[in-house]
Design goal:
alpha/beta, eight-stranded mixed beta sheet, 2 domains, 21% helix, UDP N-Acetylglucosamine Acyltransferase, domain 1, 428 residues
């Protein structure tokens, strides 16, 4: 069978995403806007499509409305290819009435949906990571090794492994040990790659490295069903360790860019990195494009602006402004004389008419976007936020926590939540 008939992909839609709050106050993590025009969920779906995998299940349960709208609008398949992105929300059944209890529990509850389609392998993916991978290489390595399950693994320097599940492998990449998020330096040191494996990596390092799980798993169909025939909730904490010594587990080493968008700081820094002349993740790679919703917006309009490294989404209107190392989403509006310095602005879902603007102004309500004469630094401005004229925003020298008008400082980044109203003259 061709790869399209061999593999089913399962994208995990995520839980509450508390570390990304308030960006996840009204949406799940995979629905968070990214890079001016995308959503995080576009990354694993695009990787699948570029790898000839077109049967994709998306498991969701928390704040899913915007994610569902995006997926249903963005991904349509012809009647002859057999492809789909099927959304499977948590549901009450005769056997269960509660939410998904973890990644493994979510897949277990949906195995009956997967059985309706012919397949040999199940590829399990996260919906909140930024990376580009050809899964065909993972599948080929899995088949060649005779593995029951293969885990994609990233070489990570020992000083940066905090919060990651670590693998120990022999020289043919068979997994001999798995430790979920170790903290003991001695344990971490014991998991370091052998000199033979280090020498075989493409990128050299001055520091010892371990293999960290990327949360990407490829299972043989029957092995997955057997592995989930229990009450365990999580792949990393329970399922994978439980298979050691019982099944053939192998690692597949990935040396490209990978970022887990798990915190506000990680999200902020990953977006700003896209403004670099040679960004670590390249959205301009036409051989492996990232797909998203077609919106048919006009080109952005920039008048008398000073721009130093910026990404600007379609349909934006920016007048007499200074932008430095900033990412502006679709339909962003920035008023005259405003300076944005390290700002991620997610834009808007719609334009306001002149009549709406007049009516809102009469009520003292700023227009959607950023007004005139503002100074904004190291800030995320979520969708449909209204920032009035003369506003000053910066997290520098301020502790994490809540401030006026719903503004939050999280991980040293100031966040204006979705739909928030920041009156003119506000200073934070």
């Amino acid at each position: 069978m061709g790869i399209q008939k061999q593999v089913l992909a399962v994208v995990m839609g995520g839980g509450r995403g508390t570390r990304l709050h308030p960006l996840t106050a009204e949406r799940c993590k995979p629905a968070v806007p990214l890079a001016g025009k995308y959503r995080l969920v576009d990354i694993p779906i695009s990787n699948c499509l570029n790898s000839e995998i077109n049967r994709i299940f998306l498991l969701t349960q928390f704040q899913t409305a915007s994610l569902h709208r995006h997926v249903q609008t963005a991904y349509h398949f012809d009647a002859f290819g057999g492809g789909f992105v099927d959304i499977l929300s948590a549901e009450q059944t005769e056997k269960s009435v509660d939410w998904y209890q973890g990644t493994a529990d979510a897949v277990r509850r949906n195995l009956h949906h997967l059985r309706s389609f012919p397949h040999d392998y199940v590829l399990i993916l996260s919906g909140d990571q930024l990376y580009r991978m050809d899964y065909r290489e993972l599948i080929a390595a899995h088949a060649a090794s005779g593995a029951d399950a293969t885990i994609a693994a990233l070489p990570v320097e020992v000083s940066k492994v905090e919060g990651l599940g670590l693998l120990q492998v022999n020289d043919n990449l068979a997994i001999t040990r798995f430790v979920e998020k170790p903290k003991d330096p001695a344990v971490i040191a014991s998991l370091a790659l052998s000199a033979t494996l280090e020498a075989g990596l493409q990128k050299a390092s001055d520091e010892n490295r371990c293999l960290a799980s990327m949360g990407i798993y490829l299972f043989n169909r029957g092995v997955l069903a057997e592995a989930l025939d229990n009450l365990h909730h999580d792949f990393g904490k329970e399922i994978i360790p439980g298979l050691l010594g019982k099944k053939k587990l192998f690692a597949h080493i990935f040396e490209g860019y990978w970022e887990d968008i798990g915190t506000v700081r990680a999200f902020f820094e990953a977006n700003l990195a896209l403004t670099d002349q040679l960004p670590p993740f390249n959205f301009f790679d036409s051989t492996s494009p990232i797909y998203t919703q077609e919106r048919f917006l006009p080109a952005s309009k920039l008048n008398h602006c000073t721009i130093d490294h910026a990404v600007i989404g379609d349909g934006s209107i920016i007048t007499s402004c200074s932008l430095r190392r900033s990412v502006l989403g679709i339909r962003s509006y920035v008023g005259e004389g405003t300076r944005l310095d390290e700002v991620v602005m997610m834009g808007a879902d719609h334009y306001e008419t002149a009549e709406q603007l007049r009516a809102n102004a009469a009520r003292g309500l700023p227009g959607i976007g950023v007004g005139a004469g503002c100074e904004i630094h190291r800030t995320i401005i979520d969708k449909n936020a209204r920032v009035g004229d003369g506003v000053r925003l910066s997290p520098v020298g301020k502790p994490d926590g809540g401030h006026v008008h719903g503004i939050v400082i999280r991980d040293g980044v100031l966040v204006v939540p979705k739909g928030a109203v920041v009156p003119g003259g506000t200073v934070v």
